[in-house]
Amino acid sequence: MKKITHLIGSGLLLTAAACSNPPADIGGSTPTNAQPFAGKKVLVAYYSHSGNTQAVAQQIARATGGELFRIETVQPYPDVYNRLVEQAQQEIQNGVLPELKTTVPDMAQYDVVFVGSPNWLGTYVPAVKSFLAQYDFSGKQLVPFFTHGGGGMQNCESDMHAQLPQAAFLPAGAFPGRSGGADADKLAGWLNKLAQ
Ligand SMILES: Cc1cc2nc3c(=O)[nH]c(=O)nc-3n(C[C@H](O)[C@H](O)[C@H](O)COP(=O)(O)O)c2cc1C
Questions:
Q1: Could you say which DSSP state residue 45 is in?
Q2: Which of 17, 77, 98, 153 places its Cα 20 to 30 Å from the Cα of 128?
Q3: More confidently predicted of 72 and 196
Q4: Which of 92, 102, 96, 98 lies closest to 124 in space, CA to CA?
Q5: Residue 82: CA atoms inside 13 Å, Cβ hemisphere, count?
Q6: pLDDT tens column, 42-51
Q7: Which residues 6+ apart lie within 8 Å of 70 measured at CB?
C-alpha cells in the first residue's frame, strides 16, 4: 500500500510537470511487481473537457504502468459553460454518439482497460459512449473511473454497465474533479482493492 501511494505521489509530481507539456497519449512505463495489475497490459482511456479526468488518468497510468489514450471528438465541445451544458443535455437525451478523432491502434493487446469520464448530468459523456461502442472488450477487464463536481458517481457506472451488459467490469472509482488529480491515498486504496 505504501509503495503504491508513493508511486501515485510521484505520479502527481510528474503530472504537474507534464501540464505545460503533456505526455504522448500512447506510451507508458514497464510494470514492476509493486504495481497493481503487474504483468498485465493496461490501457487508460479517458475523455476530459477541462483537465480533471486527464489528471486522474495520468495518475492511474503512472501507478499501473498503463498507456494513456485520450478520447477526443472531431467536433470540439463549446467552452462556454451554458452552451456546453445545453449540448451535453441534448446529446445525452438523444443517445448521440459523436464521431471520435482517433482510434486505439491495437486494442487486442490489452488485458485491462480503464475508461475515464467526467460526470455530465449524472452520467458519462457521449464521447466515452462512442469509444465503448467501437471495440470488442471480450476477454478484457474494464475499469470505469469518473470525476465529478460533488454529485459523485450518480448513474455513471450503472449506465456504462447497461451499455455493455456482457463486459467484465471491475468496481468503478469516483473522484472529486480537481486539476491536481485524485487524493493519492484514495486512488491507491481503490487500485489496490481492484488488483487483489
Ligand atoms: C456539462 C456538464 C455537466 C456536469 N454535470 C455534473 C453532474 O451532473 N454532477 C456532478 O457532480 N458534476 C457535474 N459536472 C462537473 C464535472 O463532472 C466535473 O467538473 C469534472 O471533474 C470535469 O472533468 P474534466 O475536467 O475532465 O472535463 C458537470 C460538468 C459539465 C461541464
A1: E
A2: 17
A3: 72
A4: 92
A5: 0
A6: 999 999 999 9
A7: 25, 45, 46, 47, 48, 54, 102
> Grid coordinates standing for 26?
500512447
Give the mean model confidence (pLDDT) for residues 158-166: 98
User: β-strands 173-176, 67-70: how paired?
Assistant: unpaired
Ligand 1 pocket test, candidate residues 54, 85, 89, 120, most atoms within 8 A of CB: 120
More confident residue, 13 or 132: 132
Would the pLDDT of 7 be above 70? no
Question: Which pLDDT score, from 0 to 100, does residue 25 have?
Answer: 53
Any idea which of 2-16, 27-41, 135-149 has the lowest mean pLDDT?
2-16
Alpha-carbon radius of gyration of the chain: 16
How far is Cα 32 from Cα 122, in angstroms, rounded to an integer? 36
* The three grid cell numbers given for residue 3, joined into one nine-digit string: 509503495
Residue of 54, 92, 119 to mutate, ligand 1, most atoms within 8 A of C-beta: 119
Domains of the chain (ranges plus CATH)?
Answer: 2-195 (3.40.50.360)
**Cα 34 to Cα 119: distance, rounded to the nearest angstrom:** 31
What one-character-per-residue DSSP string does 112-174 give? EEEEEEE-BTTB--HHHHHHHHSS--TTSEEEEEEEESSSTTTTHHHHHHHH-TTSEEPPPEE
